Predict the structure.
Amino acid sequence: MNALYNASLRELSAALTAKKVSALELTTLFFDRISRHDPTLNAFISTDSDKTLAMARAADARIAAGLATPLTGIPLAHKDIFCAQGWLTTAGSKMLSNFVAPYDAHVVSRLADAGMVTLGKLNMDEFAMGSSNESSYFGPVKNPWDTSCVSGGSSGGSAAAVAARLIPAATGTDTGGSIRQPAALCGLTGLKPTYGVISRYGMIAYASSLDQAGPMAKSAEDCALLLNEMAGFDPRDSTSLQRDAENYTRDLQQSLHGLRIGLPKEFFADGLDEDVRNAVEAALNEYRKLGAETVEISLPNSGLSVPAYYVIAPAEASSNLSRFDGVRYGYRAPEYGDLDDMYSKTRAHGFGAEVKRRILIGTYVLSHGYYDAYYLQAQKIRRLIAADFHAAFEHCDVIMGPTSPSVAFALGAKSDDMLKMYLSDIYTIAVNLAGLPGMSIPCGFGQGELPVGLQIIGPWFGEAKMLNIAHKYQQITDWHRRAPENIK
Amino acid sequence: MSLTLEDTQRIAKLARVELSATDCRETQRQLNGILGFIEQLQAVDTKGIEPMSHAVDAVLRLRPDTVTETDRRDAFQAIAPEVENGLYLVPKVIE
């Protein structure tokens, strides 16, 4: 029974189908781990055992009736950015600290329809703005590999909970690296699909032209199984893409012989820590053994991706977050004068420091007289960045490099210096600006025995190929099976 | 381009985020730090480049003009800070 918390989704599914374990027993097993370890890690914002147990019983009934899907009865938890009907849904903010969602996000209903059992809602940087999970109103998440270090962010609770084996899998969202960076820092496999592949309906908006949901789990195969349920057209999201459904597990076993891996020279330049570089180089050698070849490529404008992002994302955020006004839902300041005063006090007290900074920057760059100089210029540079990728994919099938320039850093190390924090996403942000799929897989350990992530960037709609590339590596390495030994 | 204290207050007012006089100076410093960082974008030659507003160049879909939403007024009002007789309450706007 104990080994089940390390099991893959396929193994869990097999155990459930063979009636070796029930969904209720699995739920109890993981709830027990949550209650023992989450007081240390702070990965969860809320749990609701009545709802969870009802879902587990329903899953058992479905299995007994022979109506199970490959995911029925398997527990997971959602980043607290996804609305789930009847569940507290906070986005890591005081502003929504009392918000019980009146409807389900598309992702939440799809995974529930598949029979998955929701174990709770996961901690995150406030409104997904952050790279360390330290901007959460509910406190920082600790990295299970070293609890004095950050989990990464913004999907820090998702990453820490799966890494500590408190849940088999989680959902996350990625606007500038928020799935890939915490996956790297916690030793997980995380995938951000092509923009538009997964519906954003019910996912609390940060920067709508960049936000994309994705799975976070122990392996590429687990991510493929989750993506099969999460992806697909949804008319309720105006940017959801109308494409034929894909089976993302179909290519997992394909040979990598002749695969051309592009290595952007900008991703291996100054600013990359030696321990991360060494682990990534070692992974590239494994890929050469698998028959792949590497070619040097260049993404000349990638250095502009962080400043361009810090114009575009705050601009979109300042618009999206204008809905939080203390009128229809969420927090309202206890004392105020007129209507404007109510808005201003509600927003001053309801939002944390980083969220307010980004709202103010966004307001400024969109304000009269500055729009062209900042916002329009950033959008033009966004096109240059996307064009770099178009040109690079003429010479390679996939791009690889580090996910993050360093392993997990100490809690508090960057919280006083926003720009340092922003630069921890230097290798991930360009992918969102271009709308490309990106993933991170564990590829070894660096300083302090902390995990290192290898980033895989695919062409538009290259998810199945990327999962294949990740899976083959995971067949010949065991980094993805390692779990922190201090979490018993 | 760097923001003065007055600029900072003006932006905060536009964003409807109250900023006390004591917090304003620190906010000004932080915003100027970020603006200094994004200043490097100004040096890039983007003549003739079409702005990219979205990750995919798709056209917004049209849908049939039919009612698809159900009436969930009670559920939505149940989570509001203050309601009365089916209305959301805010401070008096018109004297």
The radius of gyration of chain B is 22 Å. The helical segments of chain B are 5-14, 21-38, 73-77.
